[in-house]
Design a protein that fits this description.
The chain is mostly helical. It is built from three helices and no strands.
C-alpha cells in the first residue's frame, strides 16, 4: 500500500490531463459509493441535494450589497 505522501509526490509529477482524468475517476467512484447519480458530463445531479442554491446566491448578493453600502 502506498503512503499518502508518496502518492502526492507522484500526483504532482503527472500532466494536467492525467490529473484531470484522475479527478474524474475519483468523482465517479465517490458518487457510485455514495449512491449519487452522475449526469452525462460526469457532474453530480444537484437535484439529489436538498439545498436551494438560488436562495444562497440571493443571500450572498444581499450581504455583498450591504457591505458595499457601508
Amino acid at each position: 500500500m502506498m503512503l499518502n505522501s508518496e502518492l502526492f509526490v507522484q500526483l504532482k509529477q503527472l500532466s494536467r490531463g492525467d490529473k484531470f482524468q484522475i479527478i474524474q475517476f475519483l468523482i465517479a467512484d465517490f458518487a457510485q459509493k455514495e449512491g449519487l447519480k452522475l449526469l452525462d458530463n460526469n457532474q453530480v445531479d444537484r437535484t439529489l441535494y436538498p439545498h436551494n442554491y438560488s436562495d444562497a446566491a440571493d443571500k450572498l448578493m444581499s450581504l455583498l450589497e450591504q457591505k458595499e453600502g457601508k
